[in-house]
Amino acid sequence: MPQIDFYVLTDSSTDAHLRYACRLAEQAVERGQRVFMRTTTSDDSKRIDDLLWTFGDRSFLPHEVATTALPSHEKVRVLIGTSPPAGFSDLVINLSVEALPDSQALLQIVELVPVDAERKRQARERFKIYRDRGIEPTTHTV
Description:
Elements: E1 3-8, H1 16-30, E2 35-38, H2 42-54, E3 63-65, E4 78-81, E5 91-94, E6 108-113, H3 117-132, E7 138-141
Parallel strand pairs: 1-6, 1-7, 2-4, 2-5, 3-4, 5-6
């Protein structure tokens, strides 16, 4: 069963959840993990791809938007897209509004809960879905 962590954000600034997702990806890569950042649309994927280039000036995360099942180079540690490739991810950061359909096959899932009321409601629905599947998510306020 995967470990699922919900991070309830207190920062209400624009794109705070996306910047926090980039920091989580950076920390995971520093631990040697491979990360999949799940988005809802290709436009969302492009947005997070652009942000990964600019969010921090102290490091670079080898990343790409997933166009095939696996990354184009072995040094790519972060993939971005709508569906995690089998066997690639140690961590999935779910930026989609929907729960991951096959959460049992994953090691760790991170769900971000922005300050926005509608996004909070959607996160509560995802929390309930995971719980209904027999997984007890952990909640952190950051």
